[in-house]
Amino acid sequence: MTNVAPRAEHFITGYEHSRDALHTLATSVAAAPNWQEKYRQLMQAGKLLPAFEQIWQTEDARVRGCESAAWLWHYHQEGKHYFLADSDARIVKGLIALLLAALNGHSGSEIAQFDAIQYFDSLGLGGQLSPSRTNGLYALVTQIKTQANKEETP
Q1: Which Gene3D superfamilies does the entry mention (predicted)?
Q2: Sign (positive/negative) of CA torsion 69, 105, 47, 3?
């Protein structure tokens, strides 16, 4: 099977299509009064991400350290970074949506300064996720930062 990466328009269209909905999602998760409501919001969140073509689920794009299968693609244009990501687990896909809400369309220096622990604490998710989900989430953040840094380093 040929390794077919997403094209630039997939990233930009996906970002423009989901940007406002993802920011609203983050606000809704933060405002949810209890864990059950936050969990429900996360389960719905993955539906906000653009469709991820199965051909993009390659080993090169796989997120290492994530217990669930997850894939990440990166695109850099005019000093901004865009990501497409997917997972076979609904809750992980919801967490990915929150990360993309926070990081898509930002510069490499902004991404480098991103504090995932503080971000998820601000959403009321700190301490609520299982250790394996937390590890996978931080593996995804690390991969995002690494990819953004590669493009910034001459």
Answers
A1: 3.90.1010.10
A2: negative
CA distances from residue 56 to 51, 52, 151 in whole angstroms, order as listed: 11, 7, 21
Active-site residue 66, yes or no? yes
Q: What is the pTM of this model?
A: 0.84
pLDDT tens, N- to C-terminus, the chain (154 residues): 445 766 656 556 665 656 777 778 888 999 999 989 998 998 888 888 776 778 888 888 899 887 888 999 898 888 999 888 889 888 888 999 899 889 988 999 999 999 999 999 999 988 888 888 888 889 999 999 999 988 665 5
Catalytic residue among 22, 25, 66, 96: 66
